[in-house]
């Protein structure tokens, strides 16, 4: 993940809004706990505590890490369809900010690995133009929620699209390549600016549909390895601050210095709900 060299402070206030009767896929979602003051942080850096993003899923095979995802219920992880196509013998790791199962802190937060019982890609996924780049993974066993393992919020209402405006700031997280073209040892977070779809249409010479989001710039962006991870922000849901996922990291330019494309979840909330209803155990 490419991040700006300076510290950017995002005001939660710019996210406050209400959704009326909109439903959440998982009621106990989007809840974050403050990191313990015993834990160390890099001043002005972009390392992220797993308790700040407890829904982050780390996808790897017998060889290496290759994609991210998000826990959305106690059985399902959301990711990009091209991540599912890219690997077999998939394992999902939850609850860890680093590349190892233990975070090395005094509290010794330990990640948990889950086998995959089923992977479901959108049936109209088109790899050549990365259209409908969305997939879901059903885990082989049920997840228990803790402070470091919780689901992200998925709003089951296409009207969430109305919240996205050009110039607004969302948060992206992942383990993708950083400025030195190396995978970081810890989970990274970065503020990402939403751009007009026409910017990405001209850049990639392809029509960017309503089911896609254009976001990022040369200073702050996602990169190779961030695929499948979330683009989201904080929302006031009936008086509670919840972290809601708006998009899935899909693709971008090879240098990671131009806006990237994200799958817009407002278009796929019905598909997500259908998959959960049809395939849950």
UniProtKB/TrEMBL annotation:
Q: Which domain of life is it from?
A: Eukaryota
User: Quick one: a GO cellular component term?
Assistant: extracellular space
Give a GO molecular function annotation for the protein: metal ion binding
A GO BP entry is: protein maturation
The residues the entry assigns to the signal sequence are: 1-22
Q: Which Gene3D superfamilies match?
A: Trypsin-like serine proteases
Annotated Peptidase S1 domain residues: 42-277
Which Pfam families does the record match to this protein?
Trypsin
**Record's keyword terms, sorted:** Calcium, Disulfide bond, Glycoprotein, Hydrolase, Metal-binding, Protease, Serine protease, Signal, Zymogen
**UniProt family annotation:** Belongs to the peptidase S1 family. CLIP subfamily.
* Name listed for the protein in its UniProt record: Peptidase S1 domain-containing protein
Record organism: Drosophila melanogaster (Fruit fly)
